[in-house]
Write a structure and sequence with these properties.
Blueprint (H helix, E strand, L loop, with lengths): L14 H14 L8 E2 L1 H8 L3 H13 L3 E4 L3 E4 L4 H25 L2 H19 L3 H17 L4 H9 L2 H13 L3 H16 L3 H13 L1 H11 L6
Helix pairs in contact: 1-3, 4-10, 5-6, 5-9, 8-11, 9-10
Length: 228
């Protein structure tokens, strides 16, 4: 498969886990576009593994609503469903607001140094048009609200529910929508946490996450075939 990208940094304990992580990352990063067909034989050849772990990985991805399997027809990348986006927004605003409140009470200068360093790297990534790096840094910033509070497993649950949300965000990056505005929102959230203003931190965070709905309106006009 020509669009398949295999990240050398992917760690896996077996072929099934490797196939799952590679295919999922290519779906989330839009190397595999919504609606396209994925052939087991092509994936097996591209990843240099047998079809059995490919089928096992596809089964997991089907349960996660990232692919759709039609007997006698094939496997297709799921299109983006707005209901799943709405549920991801609900989960993220609820959970991240709670994490921001905890951060207002518990974060130290060390935590703020880590967040400020992340923000500086975000700005540098945008300046260098390194959009994949920026996307990774964006995720790391949101993750740190949980990691810094030792709620890493909660973040993993959020991450697993956010696939369609992530795909919209990646399209937004490709279209370069609101990049500087997004970084400014990140700064406002972190500043509110620094000043221990939990109310402002939660308000800024909720507004920031819900901007995805504005992004969808723009994206849907250009890529309506990506949505179901």
């Amino acid at each position: 498969m020509d669009n398949l990208n295999v990240d050398d940094n992917i760690k896996a304990s077996n072929a099934k886990e490797f196939a799952y992580k590679v295919i999922k990352k290519n779906i989330l990063n839009l190397n595999f576009l919504p609606g396209i067909q994925m052939g087991e034989n092509d994936l097996s050849e591209a990843l240099n593994i047998s079809r059995t772990p490919i089928r096992d990985a596809i089964s997991i991805l089907s349960n996660e609503k990232l692919v759709e399997v039609y007997p006698q027809k094939g496997t297709y990348v799921s299109k983006i469903a707005m209901q799943r986006v709405k549920e991801a927004v609900f989960i993220r605003t609820t959970m991240e607001s709670a994490a921001a409140k905890m951060a207002c009470d518990s974060f130290t200068d060390k935590d703020f140094y880590i967040l400020d360093s992340n923000l500086n790297q975000q700005e540098l990534a945008i300046e260098n048009n390194a959009l994949s790096d920026y996307n990774k840094l964006d995720n790391q910033m949101h993750e740190y609200f949980f990691k810094g509070n030792r709620f890493q497993y909660t973040w993993q649950l959020i991450h697993n529910f956010s696939a369609d949300y992530y795909r919209i965000r990646y399209i937004k990056l490709k279209l370069k929508l609101r990049l500087k505005e997004t970084i400014n929102e990140h700064k406002e959230i972190i500043q509110a946490i620094k000043t221990r203003d939990a109310v402002s931190a939660c308000q800024q965070l909720e507004k920031h996450i819900k901007y995805v709905y504005d992004d969808v309106e723009v994206i849907n006009k250009k890529y309506s075939n990506y949505f179901v």
